[in-house]
Amino acid sequence: MDMGLGRMHRALAALGLTRLPHVCVQVLGTNGKGSTATLLTALCSAHGLGVGLFTSPHFLSVRERIRYYRGGMPGYPQTPGAPLHDGLLPETDWLDAARECLAATTDFGPSGQLTYFELLTVMAARLFTTRGADVAVYEAGLGGSHDATTALSRGMAVFTPMGMDHAGVLGPTIGHIARDKAGAIP
Fold first, then answer.
1. Are the C-beta atoms of 154 and 24 separated by less than 8 Å?
2. pLDDT at 185 exceeding the cut of 60
3. Residue 147: CATH number of its domain
4. Mean pLDDT score of the chain
5. In a domain, 105, yes or no
6. Would the pTM count as exceeding 0.90?
C-alpha cells in the first residue's frame, strides 16, 4: 500500500475541496480517539454549531462513520426536551457523495485509485461542505504523517495517548510512532 497523500490531494483538488469552508479538527493517537472526537462534536454542537463527525470503524452500517449534528446529539441535548438524533445522513446523500467522489477520481488509473478509507474521508469532506458545517472532527485512521485525514486543510490537531499500534508500519519504537503522528501537526 502506498502511504503517501498524493491520491488524497488529487481527489480533493478534483472535487474543489483543497480549502474546506469549515474548521477541521483532526484527532490522532492510539486510545480514546473516538471518545475524544465525540466529546468535541458534542461540545461544538451544544453551542449551536453545525458539526461533522468522521470516525471509524463502524458497528452496524458504514453510514455511522460520517455523521452531522446541529444543536445537540444523543446524550448531549442542547436544551431540555430537545429531540435527539443519531446524526446519520440520508442514504441518498451518501450515494450522491459516493457517485460524485468516484466520478471525480475515475481517470486516476489503477495506481491512483483511492483506498476505502481515503474514499470515505473525501466523502466526509464533501458531505460536511454540502451540509454547511461550521466544524468537522476527523478521527485519523493510521498514524499521522500519511493518514488520509492529514490531507485535509486542518486548523487543529488533537492528540490522545499513544501506544505501540501499527509498529510494523509506523516504526519499532514509541518514538517512531510519535514522530509519525506528530507529522500531522498543521
1. yes
2. yes
3. 3.40.1190.10
4. 87
5. yes
6. no
